[in-house]
Amino acid sequence: MIVSLPLQVRYFLYRPVCDMRKSFDGLSGLVRERLSKDPLGGEVFIFFNARRTQVKLLVWEGDGFALWYKRLEKGTFEVPVVDEKMNGHELRSDELLFILKGISLASVRRRKRFDLNKNNFASGHQNNFTQA
Q1: pTM for this entry
Q2: CA 90 to chain centre
Q3: Within a 10 A sphere around the Cβ of 82, how many other Cβ atoms?
Q4: pLDDT for 65-104, tens place per residue?
């Protein structure tokens, strides 16, 4: 796999089926109109076709759009189950990697880890680290 998936980048899955004939302008239009996001913001936007055999990743790299495209010769990509009314869903970089590598998201079990974004240090001194 040539693509790296940095942790600092946000990843957004476009939930509706996407016409894979769309390229830079068409996909960035979907990002603006359907996801209400700025395609120039540096986030990665993920699009799948109806059969889930093709995926495109769109990202603005500061001087232009980059588009990564993969077609499976056999099998399908697993798309996370989310509310069908939502056009978009944010993914973690590891979730996207699992999808691209064919690892079932349902089979992945996460161990408890510290997450700075989910803790409020203002409420006192907490030990947010787990013991081994």
Answers
A1: 0.80
A2: 6
A3: 13
A4: 999 999 999 999 998 887 777 788 999 999 999 999 998 8
